[in-house]
Design brief:
This protein is α+β, with helices and mostly antiparallel strands. It has a domain of 57 residues: Nucleotide Exchange Factor Grpe, Chain A, domain 2. It is 63% helix and 17% strand. The strands form 2 sheets. A 3-stranded antiparallel sheet has the order 1-4-5. A 3-stranded mixed sheet has the order 2-6-3, with no helix packed on it. Strand 4 and strand 5 form a beta hairpin. Helix 2 runs antiparallel to helix 4. The longest helix has 86 residues. The model has no long low-confidence stretch (mean pLDDT 86).
Length: 183
């Protein structure tokens, strides 16, 4: 049987209804395809956003690491410079402590004291601080013990005397204090 013959046997109303059903089904399939595409696009957008956020976080972390490393290099360079200056500062201190009274009043001696104050000012500008020792509990992170000695003034384990001052930059010890500790 031919197709025309089949169409003649089926009333026109039924063929119109069938064609409408086919069109509705085709639209539904097309909508389903669009919805699937939309879901896939949303999933891909979410993946891309996640990748972007991860890359942004990695960049931020790398920037923080770089800044931390730069600060560490700066601190280490300052520590090296301070380590080289400290013996001269120690010598100034010993010289000033042992000046005879006759020289103490001379104006050139005031110049020597001024040089020492300038050196201390330079250290202060580099954020260098003296480590407190006398009267403090002995801490091997900040103090190097020369010996233990009996003391009526301090309890056992407390620093009694300081032979050489210790210094630190921030949390970094540049030079530990050389001390005596109470027995």
């Amino acid at each position: 049987m031919s197709e025309e013959k089949l169409n003649e046997d089926i009333p026109a109303e039924e063929t119109d209804a069938v064609e409408e059903e086919l069109e509705v089904e085709a639209e539904a399939v097309e909508e389903l395809s669009i919805e699937e595409q939309l879901v896939e696009a949303k999933e891909e957008a979410a993946k891309n956003m996640d990748s972007f956020l991860r890359a942004q976080a990695e960049l931020s972390n790398a920037r923080k690491r770089f800044e931390k490393q730069q600060l560490q290099v700066y601190t280490n360079a300052n520590a090296d410079l301070v380590t080289k200056l400290l013996p001269a500062l120690d010598d100034f201190g010993r010289a000033i402590e042992n000046v005879p009274d006759t020289i103490h009043e001379d104006s050139w001696f005031e110049g020597i004291e001024l040089v020492q104050r300038k050196l201390l000012g330079i250290l202060e500008s580099l954020n260098v601080k003296e480590i407190e020792a006398v009267g403090q509990p002995f801490d091997p992170n900040f103090h190097d013990a020369l010996a233990q000695e009996p003391s009526e003034e301090y309890q056992s384990g407390i620093v009694t005397r300081e032979m050489i001052k210790g210094y630190q930059i921030g949390d970094k010890v540049v030079r530990a204090s050389l001390v005596f500790v109470a027995e």
